[in-house]
């Protein structure tokens, strides 16, 4: 099934900071996060160098994707870590899988 919308989580090199976002073009969005981090962007991901994709979910509807993003943002860090680990046990960068 092809999805049009994605909720994703990116992190930094040391896996200490998480950023949760929603997009309709995950490849472009990861590239934007990378560009911001390499060029001293003032965005959250640029400031904390979050450009390693470690988790994503696909959705057909933007409404569902936004609802899931809001849900995940309310979670405590421990619960987010468990979600990522269940999807990506070694927390490897998934950037090449989507780009």
TrEMBL record:
**PROSITE patterns in the cross-refs:** GIY_YIG (PS50164)
Q: What is this protein called?
A: GIY-YIG nuclease family protein
Organism per entry: Marixanthomonas ophiurae
Could you tell me which SUPFAM superfamilies the record lists for this protein?
Answer: GIY-YIG endonuclease
Please give the coiled-coil regions recorded for this protein: none
Residue span, GIY-YIG domain: 3-82
Family statement drawn from the similarity comment of this UniProt entry: Belongs to the UPF0213 family.
Question: Looking at the record's lineage, which domain of life comes first?
Answer: Bacteria
Q: Which Pfam families does the record match to this protein?
A: GIY-YIG
């Amino acid at each position: 099934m092809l999805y049009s919308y994605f909720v994703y989580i990116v992190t930094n090199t040391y896996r200490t900071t998480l950023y949760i976002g929603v997009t309709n073009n995950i490849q472009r969005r990861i590239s934007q996060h990378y560009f911001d981090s390499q060029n001293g962007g003032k965005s959250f991901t640029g400031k904390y160098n979050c450009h390693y994709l470690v988790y994503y979910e696909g959705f057909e509807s933007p409404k569902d994707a936004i609802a899931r993003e809001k849900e995940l943002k309310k979670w405590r860090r421990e619960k987010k870590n468990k979600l990522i680990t269940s999807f990506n046990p070694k927390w490897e960068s998934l950037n090449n899988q989507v780009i």
